[in-house]
Amino acid sequence: MGAAMAGQDEATWGAVDVVVVGCGIAGLAAAVTAAEGGQKVQVLERATFTERGGNTRYTEAFLRMRDEATVSDDFEADFAANAGYHLDPALVAGAAGDYANWPSLLRSLSFADPELVATFASGIPEAVAWLKGHGVRFGDTPFFGLTESIQRIAVQGGGLALIEALTPIAERLGVAFAYQTTAHDLVIDGTGRVAGVRAMNADGGRGVYRAAKGVVLASGGFQGNAEMMARYIGPHGRYARPVSRGGYYNKGEGIRMALAIGAAPAGDYSDFHAEPIDPRSGKTEAVVMIFPLGILVNREGQRFFDEAQGTVDRTYEAASRAANRQSGGLAFCVLDGKLDQVQGWQRTIRTEVPPIAAATLDELAAAAGIAREPFRATIAAFNAACPPGEGFDARRLDGLATRGLFPPKSNWARPIDRAPFRCYPVIAANTFTFGGLKVDPDARVLSTDGVAIPGLYAAGETVGIYYGRYTGSTSVLRGAHFGRRAGRHAARR
Ligand SMILES: Cc1cc2nc3c(=O)[nH]c(=O)nc-3n(C[C@H](O)[C@H](O)[C@H](O)COP(=O)(O)OP(=O)(O)OC[C@H]3O[C@@H](n4cnc5c(N)ncnc54)[C@H](O)[C@@H]3O)c2cc1C
């Protein structure tokens, strides 16, 4: 995969102003915005019409916002706290200056740069208002954890509502959609400008879509590509399957074709947003969010993580990643009979497969395939470290913490001692990969020298902006905001 000038003998399948690759929220926001700007737009989409929309189709679409007009209080601070790793202060100090004058090393640096984050945060209310003007409704949707601390609203009807609202609008505006058409590489013209995309259709035919003004890469991350998962995430990437059917369609071509022409990478290529799911279930997002009330053990019967270090919405990603690092990428969430005293615990479970249940812990270990002797020792040590007394409260951080145990359990620590005993197997599902492309505030893809690559834009998961802990409930917004920016800038060119 690489880039080349269009050959004389290549079939031209379309010639428009703007070519958009992918039709999740990022692609649709870009396509509709460009079309509203008077541009002729072609969308290429790998999936069929009925399966289109990638991850967007399956998300509940929580948005990190206080209300429709205001992002969460901690929006920029959370990005700043997860901007990158051991960043060089001498280099990053330059970010205080005018963006136009940032040195090339800084513009192309792989970190969540404050300019990008600030324009992202300030652009969100406009993107949300635009969606509302296109028939999307927002409100409250119950979160699946017993505790939460992130301010959020949600798209009513989830991501599917976004797809179903924007697709007919795009069609009415004359946007052309080519389904079962996969973009593979970029076409560069004689001046070095990105001038189109080379694609393959369902019959294996190849052709070129020419773009007079720009190509928007909105084709998601690489969670559906086993080779890239192994290459970037490492051996344990093999255990992290996509959390939805939509993620399987995201095979990283958008990222690869841009890197091949000198785009700057951004976002942590070695990580992904993880959710704890039951691997026995084929449902979308079959989460097991009850682990803070129990313990997590691996196949060897050992604990490996503080299950209750905070509210579950801030902990589940780290818990999932820790499970992913265990042998076989597998852990077990072990619970005892006291769980039934907790009102509403069932809504934290989205797998339809019942837990493994047993009258004794030995039987539970045998049924689940957990090593019995070390499991016994783990339970004994854990129970002995639980504090005596009352005060358990599943709805808040209750401070019931183990004493003298490593790893500790910082809240909700109660002995595992009452039948029936239950456990759910848990793996880390891959919601989306972090590695992507560096863009400027107009969603223009930057080169490794920090220069905007003429004619090339990226939006959504294809944009790399996350490091460390995912700033939750910002990925749909990333699609809407950068899609809008890309479509608008391409239309202006
Ligand atoms: C179950 C689930 C729950 C989630 N919950 C939330 C949440 O509450 N809040 C939040 O902010 N985020 C959430 N996310 C993440 C968020 O939904 C996605 O990151 C976001 O919707 C991605 O939008 P996108 O347009 O970038 O990519 P996608 O929606 O994945 O769209 C990419 C499109 O590109 C197509 N494509 C891929 N490669 C090619 C190619 N080479 N050529 C042509 N087409 C191609 C795909 O088929 C797909 O249609 C969740 C995700 C899932 C799956």
Q: Specify the biggest β-sheet.
A: 9 strands, mixed
Provide the helix percentage. 25-40%
Q: Based on Cα principal axes, name the global outline.
A: elongated
Domain count: the total is: 2
Give the C-level CATH assignment of the largest domain: Alpha Beta
Spatial extent as radius of gyration: 24 Å
Structural class: alpha+beta
**CATH-wise, what's the superfamily of the largest domain?**
FAD/NAD(P)-binding domain
* Low-confidence region ranges: none
What small ligands are held by the chains? flavin-adenine dinucleotide
Which CATH-level-2 architecture of the largest domain?
3-Layer(bba) Sandwich
Task: State the total count of DSSP E strands.
Answer: 21
Number of contiguous helices: 12
Distance between the termini: 28 Å
Portion in strands? 15-25%
CATH topology-level name of the largest domain = FAD/NAD(P)-binding domain
Average of pLDDT: 96
List the topology elements.
Elements: E1 3-4, E2 12-21, H1 25-36, E3 41-44, E4 62-63, E5 65-67, E6 70-71, H2 75-81, H3 89-92, H4 104-107, H5 114-133, E7 138-139, E8 153-155, H6 158-172, E9 176-178, E10 181-188, E11 194-201, E12 206-217, H7 226-233, H8 253-260, E13 265-266, E14 272-277, E15 295-297, H9 312-324, E16 331-335, E17 356-358, H10 361-368, H11 372-385, E18 421-433, E19 436-437, E20 444-446, E21 452-458, H12 475-492
Parallel strand pairs: 1-10, 2-3, 2-12, 3-9, 12-21
Antiparallel strand pairs: 4-8, 5-6, 7-8, 10-11, 11-12, 13-19, 14-18, 15-16, 16-18, 17-18, 20-21
The structure holds flavin-adenine dinucleotide.
